Amino acid sequence: MVNSAVWLDLSGNDDLQELLSRSQNIPCLIFKHSTQCSISAMALLRLESRLKSSSIAFSPYKLLLLEHRAISNEIAQMFKVHHESPQVLLIYQGICIYDEDHLDISFDEIEESVASLNIVAEGIV
């Protein structure tokens, strides 16, 4: 299970293709982070603190928005969501099943979304 605060890098098309492929079997969480935004920093800390104690299975990806704006725009277009930062998207089987931004990001809602999928995922990296 991947539920630690170790983020996978999302910085280019290869990473996005890997995420899409992985999402066929396990939900993938995208966190779009602006390193110059205090709200984004707070959201990141809240997510990381909950990731450490969560038992849900998903692959967490972090996109550094200022460095990789083009891939962020591609994600917004691909999943038909309005670009925000901070923003989380939960992708499963290539579809965005949850997205929130700013202070509306809720780890409880992310957990509920993953739990509703009834996935048995053991040993997924």
Tell me what the structure shows.
The chain has 125 residues and is of the alpha/beta class. It is 36% helix and 22% strand. It is built from four helices and five strands. A five-stranded mixed β-sheet has the order 1-3-2-4-5, with helices on both faces. The longest helix has 16 residues, at 38-53. The N and C termini lie close together (6 Å).
Concise description?
With 125 residues, this protein is of the alpha/beta class.
Furnish the topology, listing elements before pairings.
Blueprint lengths: L7 E2 L3 H10 L5 E6 L4 H16 L5 E6 L4 H10 L8 E6 L2 E7 L5 H9 L10
Parallel strand pairs: 1-3, 2-3
Antiparallel strand pairs: 2-4, 4-5
How would you describe this structure in keywords?
alpha/beta, 125 residues, 4 helices, globular
Flag low-confidence runs. 121-125
Instruction: Estimate the global geometry from the Cα principal axes.
Output: globular
Q: Which structural class matches the secondary elements?
A: alpha/beta
Count of alpha and pi helical runs: 4
The oligomeric status of these chains comes to single chain
Overall mean confidence score, pLDDT:
89
Order of helices and strands: EHEHEHEEH
Got a strand count? 5
> Between the first and last Cα atoms, what is the distance in angstroms?
6 Å
Q: Radius of gyration from the CA trace?
A: 13 Å
Largest sheet: 5 strands, mixed
Percentage of residues in DSSP E strands = 15-25%
Widest β-sheet, arrangement of strands: 1-3-2-4-5
> What is the percent of helical residues?
25-40%
